[in-house]
Design goal:
The complex is a heterodimer of chains A (432) and B (509).
Chain A: H1 23-31, H2 36-61, H3 70-81, H4 91-102, H5 111-128, H6 136-152, E1 154-155, H7 157-179, H8 182-211, E2 215-216, H9 226-253, H10 257-272, H11 275-285, H12 298-324, H13 327-335, H14 340-370, H15 382-391, H16 400-428
Antiparallel strand pairs in A: 1-2
Helix pairs in contact in A: 4-9, 4-15, 5-6, 6-7, 7-8, 9-10, 9-12, 9-14, 9-15, 10-12, 11-12, 12-14, 13-14, 14-16
Chain B: H1 16-19, H2 21-53, H3 84-117, H4 122-136, H5 140-154, E1 177-179, E2 182-185, E3 187-190, H6 194-222, H7 228-252, E4 255-257, E5 276-280, H8 286-297, E6 301-304, H9 310-318, E7 327-331, E8 342-343, E9 346-350, E10 355-358, E11 361-363, E12 366-368, E13 371-374, H10 375-402, H11 405-413, H12 418-448, H13 460-472, H14 475-504
Antiparallel strand pairs in B: 1-2, 2-13, 3-10, 4-9, 5-7, 6-7, 8-9, 11-12
Chain lengths: 432, 509
């Protein structure tokens, strides 16, 4: 026997893959240069990126941050980077930052909008994250009134009286629906607060204010401006449009012909006209529809029209949520013997709203972007302010720095919200 | 034995309105209706009272009053002596113009970007993602204002095109001038035979429809597939071009009298003996373009009179000349008049092709001739297109991704070629997903075009909702008409969409 063997007993060393099949070269070949048209496209794209960045980057970074006027800024740039350098005057942002954020809100009171803004996150947290205790929702319900008080100031009794209206409505429903029927209860729940707000609350608030003055310095609407104004209008618009939108969506789904026609008519009308025409209504027409002598300020009128606008879109979003619920949920609720409002409140709406959250966020993004339209009717949102700043002698001629900054802030807000809504959508997708 | 008894038929009691589900819905509806009517009546009553107090009850007669303002961008004849109603129509046409232009470009850009975003090329797909996220997340108003600012800041003034040391020059064979006031493009001037050319074109379009029907029928009956794309392409171009060239040949022999009167006194060497002012009034059209080109080539100066120059129009009418669009040429003594142009009764030129391009021409510090697309129109058009394209791109992407891979593979297994797979299997299914959101994007674009007011483009919001509203103080009436118009446009678009949806709906059996 010989120990000659024709079978290899030890493994060969693994060889490194060819250079073209590994690492960055393989990646480049696969993803950018897989064939000739692709290579041309890639090179063109790279060239375009270079072309844009080679202009924009030096402009962005060869800049001046501390100057009080455009001339001062230009000479500062010329002194640092040499004559003829085209650099950005970010100093306009530095100079007017507070104005762009707060408008003409009194400097000493900046803490109020800041607190209101921060509390907003506390208020929406329980809506967005499941893990938090449900008791926090109570704060969410109080928050709109708190934010109103913080932003506009004045007597605390005024927002309290509005809350009292809701409480009265709730009580009226409880009492009347026990005495008569739930339908009469509903009517009472609508009528009692309206009577309270229209005829009684003002006097009671004045009386209580004289007994126990609880007020902070009032700030007039005309001082509102900048991103604070955009956020205020956007958030109030969305928050108020949610309940109206729910009612409209239910009305549109309803079997009651007249209710359905009214809701559909309202929704289609609002969705068919551009927001700017509604803002024109706010600026020129809305006072005509109020009893003679009524006059309330422009921002409030704008908020009313923006709310109507948003609620039509919100109604469609919620209708989408309602339609997405499986029919079994409705039937299950019926089989438990729940009446319409009970099943809506306990079974249908919680699920429909949860499905709709990503779309609600999207419609908030849309509304937030649309708040810039108020600059057309003369409110000082960031775009209105930028016109103001450019009309100023010191900063006459600044364009891209201001627009760029405003665009960047909007982008950051909207992009982060849209990413969040995409994350939610993935999380809620329990299908597969 | 049992008998079937009907449930007890009790009489109607008032309480059944509340407790009986048969009647309760009616009760609720009536209460809702009463509440709604009360609210509506309250609003209308207030409005009537307030308007009466201001002394301007609802009245639409202001639409017939003289408007007194000019609109620089217009598709139909308009001047400040015309009515507010006419101004509103000019505005409406401007809205429709920018909406149609915007929808077309937004679709083209959006589809391109949506497809490119799905590209396997890493850098292209990333670039497109950046494009989409950038445009979607910044307010459209800001885009419009920024595009306008680019125009005003970066593009040259007309005077920079002047002289030997011009810092700017015209593009595309000297036919397009990009200035900070807008983009000047060649205008179309029509000559004899244009009607025939257009008729031929329409006829060939109809021909294509019939041919395609025939091709389909043939394929269904015999299985034979005609190269219908190529043939349609041929029908589209060939007859129209043939008629165009034929008309051009005919026109070559047709001289067109431009100089209307015997004003030129000529020397023996064909130069003009004294300074003369001549008027060449023509009904416009291709012949006029050729006349102008000839005179410019020979250094004869002339100036155009805008037809809305009122004083001149009046003087022309009083002198018996009711034609509009006259040009006045000042021909200095000694100017040589080109050979062949001169006849005793006037000057005649070649009457031109059925369509001639009237290129923009720099005279003095500004451009004349050509068509000016104002910077406001272009800024609005571009910004709206780029913004909406970002949304359309997302729609297209999701539509393409919605067609499952199995469809493509199954079609390939049937032996279809890649082109056919796309056109017969993928696209029809993707379009069903793409079209509805696409239409709502078109609606958004149309509504967003109302932001024209921010850059001074006179659309319906700028005319009726802007200047007219401010001048007449008729807020209620103006806004009612304005909203009604937008509502009509929106409802029309959504009706079209519903009809389409009905047609492409999956037929379930």
């Amino acid at each position: 026997m010989t120990d000659v063997s024709y079978v290899r007993t030890e493994m060969l060393e693994e060889k490194a893959p060819p250079v073209s099949q590994a690492g960055i070269i393989k990646w480049l070949r696969d993803n950018m240069f897989s064939n000739i048209p692709n290579s041309i496209l890639s090179i063109a794209a790279l060239w375009a990126i270079y072309y844009v960045l080679s202009d924009v980057l030096p402009w962005t970074f060869k800049s001046s941050w501390n100057a009080n006027s455009l001339d001062e800024c230009r000479s500062a740039i010329a002194a640092t980077y040499g004559e003829g350098t085209d650099g950005a005057c970010w100093s306009v942002i530095h100079d007017r930052f507070l104005q762009l954020v707060f408008g003409f809100y009194p400097k000493a009171l900046y803490w109020r909008p800041i607190v209101a803004f921060l509390l907003m996150f506390v208020a929406i947290a329980p809506v967005l994250f499941d893990g938090l205790p449900k008791k926090m929702l109570r704060f969410t319900m109080i928050y709109p009134f708190l934010a109103f008080w913080l932003l506009w100031g004045g007597s605390l009794w005024f927002p309290l009286m509005i809350i009292a209206g809701f409480v009265l409505g709730y009580l009226a429903y409880g009492v009347v629906s026990k005495m008569a029927s739930s339908l009469v209860g509903m009517i009472a729940a609508v009528l009692v607060p309206i009577i309270w707000w229209l005829f009684l609350s003002g006097d009671v608030a004045t009386m209580l204010q004289s007994i126990m003055p609880l007020s902070i310095e009032a700030v007039s609407s005309s001082n509102f401006g900048g991103f604070m104004l955009s956020i205020t209008i956007g958030v109030i618009g969305i928050a108020l449009s949610l309940p109206i939108g729910i009612v409209l969506a239910l009305g549109r789904q309803s079997d009651l012909m007249i209710v359905k026609v009214i809701c559909v008519g309202f929704i289609e009308f609002i969705r068919g006209v551009p927001l700017i025409t509604l803002l024109f209504v706010a600026s020129t027409l809305l006072n005509y529809f109020m009893p003679p002598g009524t006059n309330f300020d422009l921002i409030l009128r704008v908020i009313i029209m923006v709310t109507l606008f948003a609620s039509a879109y919100m109604a469609e979003v919620i209708r989408g949520g309602l339609a997405a619920l499986p029919k079994g949920q409705y039937e299950g609720a019926d089989s438990l013997g729940l009446d319409f409002w009970q099943s809506t409140r306990l079974i249908i709406m919680p699920q429909a709203l949860k499905i709709s959250i990503p779309n609600i966020v999207s419609s908030f993004i849309g509304l937030f972007k649309d708040t810039t339209l108020v600059s057309i009717i003369g409110l000082l949102d960031p775009i209105g302010l930028s016109t103001n700043i450019r009309a100023n002698q010191e900063w006459n001629g600044v364009i891209w720095e201001l627009y760029g900054f405003i665009a960047l802030v909007f982008w950051l807000f909207c992009f982060s919200m849209s990413r969040y809504s995409m994350y939610l959508e993935r999380k809620l997708q329990t299908g597969h | 034995m049992s008998t079937i008894t009907d449930p007890e038929q009790g009489g109607f009691r008032i309480s059944m309105l509340l407790y009986d589900t048969r009647y309760r819905s009616i009760t609720i509806q009536i209460i809702a209706l009463i509440g709604f009517l009360l609210a509506l009546g309250w609003l209308i009553g207030n409005a009537a009272q307030n308007l009466a107090a201001l002394g301007k009850p609802l009245n639409f007669s202001f639409l017939g009053d003289t408007s007194g303002y000019d609109i620089n961008q217009r598709l139909v004849e308009y001047n400040s002596q015309m009515t507010h109603g006419r101004a509103a129509i000019v505005g409406l046409l401007n809205t429709l113009l920018v909406a149609v232009l915007g929808c077309i470009t937004a679709t083209v850009i959006g589809v391109l970007i949506g497809v490119m975003r799905l590209s396997k090329n890493w850098i292209i797909s990333k670039l497109m993602t950046i494009y989409i996220e950038t445009f979607r997340n910044v307010p459209v108003l800001l885009w419009i204002i920024m595009t306008m600012a680019i125009f005003i800041e970066f593009f040259p003034q007309p005077k920079e095109f002047r002289g030997d040391a011009a810092t700017a020059s015209m593009k595309l064979f000297d036919s397009v001038a990009i200035t900070n006031r807008g983009i000047l493009i060649p205008a179309l001037a029509y000559g004899p035979g244009i009607v025939l050319v257009l008729l031929t074109f329409v006829a060939s379009l109809i021909g294509i429809v019939f041919f395609r029907r025939y091709a389909k029928k043939l394929q269904e009956q015999t299985g034979k597939i005609l190269p219908s794309g190529l043939i349609s392409f041929g029908i589209f171009f060939v007859p129209t071009l043939l008629v165009f060239f034929a008309a051009t040949m005919v026109n070559l022999n047709k001289e067109h009298v431009i100089f209307g009167s015997k004003v030129l006194t000529m020397n023996a060497d064909n130069t003009i003996s004294a300074d003369s002012v001549v008027r060449f009034c023509d009904t416009g059209g291709a012949g006029n373009v050729n006349a102008k080109n000839l005179m410019r080539a020979n250094g004869i100066k002339f100036k155009s009179i805008a037809s809305n120059d009122l004083a001149d129009s009046l003087s022309r009418i009083s002198s018996g000349d009711t034609r509009t669009g006259c040009d006045i040429a000042t021909v200095p003594a000694g100017t040589a008049v080109p050979e062949g142009l001169l006849v005793s009764e006037g000057v005649s030129v070649y009457s031109g092709r059925p369509v001639e391009l009237e290129k923009p021409y720099l005279s003095g510090f500004n451009f004349t001739d050509g068509a000016l697309m104002r910077n406001s129109l272009i800024a609005l058009w571009f910004a709206l297109s780029l913004y909406t394209a970002a949304f359309i791109a997302e729609t297209v992407r999701s539509g393409i991704q919605a067609v499952s891979k199995g469809q493509t593979e199954a079609a390939a297994a049937l032996g279809l070629r890649p082109g056919r797979i796309t056109s017969l299997v993928v696209l029809p299914q993707a379009l069903r997903v793409i079209i509805p959101p696409m239409i709502s994007q078109y609606m958004n674009l149309t509504k967003n075009s109302s932001l024209a007011i921010a850059v001074g483009y006179m659309d319906i919001t700028g005319t009726l909702g802007g200047v007219t509203l401010n001048q007449t103080g008729r807020e209620m009436e103006s806004l009612m008409i304005l909203m009604a118009i937008y509502l009509t446009i929106s409802l029309t678009i959504s009706t079209v969409m519903n009809v389409y949806n009905e047609r492409v709906k999956l037929r379930e059996r």
